[in-house]
Amino acid sequence: MSIRILLADDHKITRQGLRSLLEKQDDMEVVAEAENGRIAFRLVDELLPDVVIMDVTMPDLNGVEATHQIATKYPDVKVIALSMHSDSLFVTEMLRSGAAGYLLKDCAFEELTRAIRAVMDDKTYLSPSISGVVVEDYLHRLSKSHFSSSEVLTDREREVLQLMAEGKSTKQIALKLHISVKTVETHRRQIMNKLDIHTIAELTKYAVRKGLTSLDT
Predict the structure, then answer these.
(1) Topology given in CATH for the domain delimited by 149-209
(2) Do 3-143 and 149-209 agree at the fold level?
(3) pLDDT at position 15
(4) What pLDDT shows up at residue 161?
(5) Can you list the alpha helix ranges (DSSP code H) found in the chain?
(6) 20 to 30 Å CA-CA from 204: which of 23, 31, 104, 111?
(7) Partners of 169 in beta bridges
(8) What is the pLDDT at residue 148?
(9) How is domain 3-143 classified at the CATH fold level?
(10) Of 186 and 210, which is predicted with more confidence?
(11) pLDDT, tens digit, 9 for 90 and up, residues 105-148
């Protein structure tokens, strides 16, 4: 039986290239593509693929939040991050969110297929070039009891924060998330109070720094 794969990346050419390569594998098939995390989660909900190849920085809903939502509702679906970012922030946030693997986009295609087969065997796969980053971050947490302030935000608050940082208006956020304008305003107030940040400009900087969004998405 083929490994059923969902590709989530906001660059169409990347998705097309991966699809072309993966479908040459006898034991793999690409069942769907998504251009952002929100669509990825909806497609996982509909199709229940075996593996999701997830970009980290995508508009609307980033890979970290999408991975968290998928891992929470569908723990048997394996998520592999495929990203251009090698710094500890992105790596550790994806792993904490439930990703089973993390690869860099400059890796060889053979490494991606190796990672897919590894996570299907319930193993964790990390690109050799970032393994040291994970170890260093773990030791840092042990020594300093590091705690990310973004962890105090709920899933919905992080979604609202990303959309705010992307320049969406209160009304646009309400329509996107199917909630009322008043609810969005309540979330915004709670976000500002929890983070002790009280301007949109500073919230945007915070969201970029924490990997919730990217200036180049």
Answers:
(1) Arc Repressor Mutant, subunit A (1.10.10)
(2) no
(3) 97
(4) 92
(5) 12-22, 37-47, 63-73, 88-97, 109-120, 128-144, 155-165, 170-177, 181-195, 200-209
(6) 104
(7) none
(8) 53
(9) Rossmann fold (3.40.50)
(10) 186
(11) 999 999 999 999 999 999 989 888 787 666 666 556 544 544 45
Instruction: Tell me how far apart the terminal alpha carbons of the chain are, to the nearest angstrom.
Output: 36
The two structure tokens encoding residue 111: 């490494």
**Which pLDDT does position 201 carry in this prediction?**
79
**Burial (0-12, 13-18, 19+ Cβ within 10 Å), 187:** buried
Q: CA angle 210-120-111, nearest 5°?
A: 70
State both tokens at 212: 């919730």
Q: Where are the domains of the chain?
A: 3-143, 149-209
Distance CA 191, CA 212 (A): 14
Two structure tokens written together for 57: 């920085």
Q: What is the dihedral of CA 130, 131, 132, 137, to 10 degrees?
A: 90
